[in-house]
Amino acid sequence: MTFPENCARPSVASGTLLCTLLAGTPLLAAETSALPLLTHNLYLDELVITGTRTPRKVSDTPVRTEVVSGEDIRNTHAHTVKEALEYAPGVLLREIHGKAGYEVWMQGLNADRVRVLIDGLPMTATTGSSVDVSQLDTLDIERIEIVKGAVSAQYGSSAMGGVVNIVTRPIDAGVSARATVDGGTYGDQNPSGEALDFARRNGQANLDLGGEHVRYRLSATRQETDGIDPEPETWARPGDAIERAHVTNRLEWLPSDGHRIYGQVNYFREDGVSRYSLVNPGRAPAKAGKDELAERWRGALVGQHVPTSGPQWHWSLLHENLENNTRKYTAARSFDNRDATHTLSQASGWTQFEPLEDHQLQLGTDLRHTRLEQYKDRVSELSGEEDASQNSKELWLQDTWFASPHWEWVGGVRFQHDSDFGDHFAPKVNARYDLFSGDAVNIYLRGGWGAGYRVPNLKERHYLFDHSQLGYIVNGNPDLEPEESDSYQLGWGLTYRNTAWFEVNAFLNNIDRLIQTDVDEDATAAREDNIQVFRYTNVDRARTQGFEVTAGWQFRPGWKLSAGYTYLDAEDRDTGQPLTRRPEHQGTLSLDGLTPVPGMAWLARLRSQSDEVVDANSGHESSGFTTIDLKLNQDLGDNLRLFTGVNNLTDAQRNFNDANDFGPVSGRYIYAGVTLGFGNPL
User: Fold this and answer.
1) 102 forms bridges with which residues in the sheet?
2) Contact (Cβ atoms closer than 8 angstroms) between residue 143 and residue 210
3) What total of structural domains would you count in the chain?
4) What rounded mean pLDDT belongs to the chain?
5) CA distance 562 to 578
6) 530 vs 248, more confident
7) Is residue 198 within 8 Å of 184, Cβ to Cβ?
8) Percentage of the chain exceeding pLDDT 90
9) Is residue 289 domain-resident?
10) Angstrom distance (rounded) from CA 169 to CA 147
11) pLDDT score for 94
């Protein structure tokens, strides 16, 4: 038996490219480490592990799982996980308040309730509550798996809205290397004011050394952007200038068949510079800025022991340290100097065995410790404490029952003991029934129910977030109670010859004791400086419901058409008002095709969403928008690719003078790039 990563690894065949001169200047754009483009992998044959922890095809997994394949990541030149997820049906990417990064929302549940994992291990929440997926590069990614709703027993608190699992690729035998450089322009929105400047530059490289028993990888990426500025002659700049660097070292030991142990150390650094006009009541606007530095160290040691017979054993140790430092300033002074440190440590283990012929049993445990320190101007912002910490002990059990050739059931329960909130049980059940199975057509039903549970994070309980310079304060609440939810998923699907598919999935999520920020009327009234005071409270019950439709057809090798549509109804169950920042309609359309030129292929991606409510009381809305991306790739042999593309061809962009407009920050972006490699054919 092989490892899940090996089972899930799609074969790669040779591909395409393009070499283009834009405005007489060669521009460059991004790619990941694997080259050939014109692979003929079938989406329904993709193997996934997130829903059940065992390799299952997308077409027959009992827990609905969607995939962004490594092939699609490479062919669309996605630099970051944010860019890789942009065209995943039903996934909303929201700009993080006060930052240049993006977080993931699913089925109407915001990023605090969506767990982001790397190889099944959690990430530190970049903001204290949500993960910034624009900080995660795609260089070593095999695929990204998405499970929506609280239907999996394996991932615990913070997974009420679902899971995004980033699966990295193992190291192959042999020696190989890849390097990519790219760059592009935002035209007249380049901060320099010069339309042909390279306002965005990217580079990435990796080296794999694979022996029979010991294998090593070194990979590195660097991304630079000067920002986005529709009015370069003014001080304010709506798009931040950012530099990101990421270095990964991975060492694998394969002592014998079915056994792998690997250690990985990652270092990430982000430097960001914001420029804006500071507006306070009774004062003239002032030129202001913010310098922000984020550094993350992440180390993991993982063991996978999958013998040809007998139980499987999996274990992991994880430690991550994230530091975030911000400095705000005007011409006259600096203010709000913040230093935050987030620490995450986890030890996990699980085993799989077959107690009966038609049952597959899994038993696992997670021991987790989180810690937070935050200072403003050297004074703690954590309710007077120097730091805050939280411990959890979690035990989960899952049984997959192959009840008949047509029925499969997956039941599970997760027990969680939290140092501050005590014990909680969260049961789950999923089922799949094949209505019809033939040589060409398969028709099935798939559904699940899960009890979601989320303890308040350290930020919600302990922060004293003083932004009085910007007119508001957000206070933590140590008396918060955990959120609970019921998540229901029910779908009907059809596949044809493994090349075409159609599925409709209805969902309903009921959340109790939803944690939101509300105006603290008494604290606000007690102030004499017109500063609004907000406080985290358990005041809302919420419901999100709707349905998703996905369809696709790989009608010829190298040609693929796919589409997705999501309808969402999200409301506060206490007031009947809509939940804000959740569009009612969202759609995606993708088309991949070949050209008469050998090795050349093109891709088109469309994303559209309807208006969304910004303020339920005033009725203010942010207008809907549609973006189109075009990509062209040309492979010259197995180890050289040229590529180019246009992101946001429609130039859809928010009105930066309208505080209620949350459309795209970036307008049209034109780029090109080259990838060069050697070694193993990919």
Assistant:
1) 95
2) no
3) 1
4) 89
5) 30
6) 248
7) yes
8) 75
9) no
10) 20
11) 95
The pLDDT assigned to 1 comes to 34
Structure tokens that stand for 597 in this block:
């030129």
Radius of gyration of the chain (CA): 25
pLDDT tens digit sequence for 181-217: 999 999 999 999 999 999 999 999 999 999 999 999 9
Domain contains 152: yes
CB 455 within 8 A of CB 485: no
Indicate whether 288 belongs to any domain. Answer: no
500 in any annotated domain: yes
Task: Check if the beta carbon of residue 152 is closer than 8 Å to that of residue 160.
Answer: no
Q: Which two tokens stand for residue 380?
A: 């703690």
347: Cα separation from own chain's centroid:
23
Q: Are 302 and 315 in contact (CB under 8 A)?
A: yes
Cβ proximity of 606 and 586 under 8 Å? no
Mapping DSSP to helix (H, G, I), strand (E, B) and coil, where does residue 39 land?
coil
Separation CA 324–CA 339 (nearest Å): 6
Q: Convert the pLDDT of each residue in 249-292 to its tens digit.
A: 999 999 999 999 999 999 999 999 999 988 766 677 889 999 99
Helix (H, G, I), strand (E, B) or coil at 484: strand
Distance of CA 274 to the CA centre of its chain: 24
SS (H, E, C) 188-255: HHCCCCCCCCCCEEEEEEEEEEECCCEEEEEEEEEEEECCECCCCCCCCEEEEEEEEEEEEEEEEECC
**How many angstroms separate the CA atoms of 131 and 117, rounded?**
10
- CB count within 10 Å of CB 601 equals 24
Contact 535, 518 (CB under 8 A): yes
Given a contact cutoff of 8 angstroms between Cβ atoms, the answer to whether 112 and 130 are in contact is yes
97 exposed, middle or buried (CB, 10 Å; 0-12, 13-18, 19+)?
exposed
Q: Which residues contact 658 (CB under 8 A, 6 or more apart)?
A: none
pLDDT value, residue 286: 87
Closest CA to 54 of 364, 441, 270: 364
Residues spanned by the domain of 221: 4-282+296-678
235: exposed, middle or buried (Cβ count in 10 Å: 0-12, 13-18, 19+): middle
Which residues fall within 8 angstroms of residue 672, CB to CB, at 6 or more apart?
A: 18, 19, 20, 22, 26, 27, 28, 29, 182, 183, 184, 642, 643, 644, 645
Asked if residue 137 lies in contact with residue 468, where contact means CB atoms within 8 angstroms, the answer is: no
Give me the pLDDT at residue 598, please.
95
**Cβ(276)–Cβ(239) below 8 Å:** no
Between β-strands 532-556 and 472-475, what pairing exists: parallel, antiparallel or unpaired? parallel
Average confidence (pLDDT) over 223-229: 97
10 phi, psi to nearest 5 deg: -70, 145
For residue 419, give the nearest of 390, 394, 395 by alpha carbon: 390
CATH number at residue 17: 2.40.170.20
Chain centre distance of CA 448: 23
Measure the CA–CA gap between 158 and 392, rounded to whole angstroms: 13
- On whether the CB atoms of residues 206 and 219 are closer than 8 A, the answer is yes
Contact 473, 465 (CB under 8 A): yes
